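The protein record minuted underneath.
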Amino acid sequence: MQRRFIDYLIISFKGLAMGAADAVPGVSGGTIAFISGIYEELINTISNVSPSLFKTLFNKGFKTFWEQLNGNFILALLSGIIISFVSFMKLAKYLLEYHPILIWSFFFGLIVASIYFVGKQITKWNIATILVLIIGAAIAFYISKLPSLGTNENPWFLFLAGSIAICAMILPGISGSFILIILGAYKTLSDAIHDIDLKKIMIFVGGAVVGLLSFSHVLKWLFKHYHNITLALLTGFIFGSLNKVWPWKETLSWHTNSKGEKIPLLQESISPFSFNGDNQIAFAVALMILGFLTIFILERLGSKK
């Protein structure tokens, strides 16, 4: 595929959007990748990383290796993801603490539009696809209801959390950041990024690389042999995740971490008119519409060849 500089710049912007989404617990960067038209290329590129690729490096040189790796694509996308994830994680932390209704409203609109755009790529609807969609929605809804665990800073646990969370990050509808919260590793990672704790960051990245290389082969196989079924499952995941990003919630229980900070442990979605406090309904609806329209823009970018 012959690409110009502007094409790689657009891929970097898509990476920025993916990184921003992954930084928010409840939103999946995989959803952004899917809508923006780079999902299957991303999965194929990751799954092509193998020992034979490194034989190419030694036998045929760096240029051939880089082309087989699809290196320009990876570099452009990863640059956007890393810059956005590291910078937006701090912003997301602030917004979730002081403006939760507004940030969740934007992502709620974004995910509603995602359901339509992912679902419309299913070329054949039958009993199997409908059943798998319902199962996917039930799984994602169940995950969204799980309470988070206490913070765990054990290096092996952080490695495992990285390998599990990265699988969720590339699955549309399942949030890698939310999985980190459930596992009790989100605070550890965000603190490590804030404090530039390279040891913890590298342990997490190591786990993420192992998980990513393993899981991408599974996804590639599923897309090749069960394309519609896989799409139906992913659509179900996105639909089921709506509960997590519903803007109006009631906190049922709290968790106090080692620093004495109170963190919501278990929350329940409620009607905006039952919300205790300012429901910010006008701003919330406006941001839902903005989130919805954002997906149309990303889809338009993704559909351009």
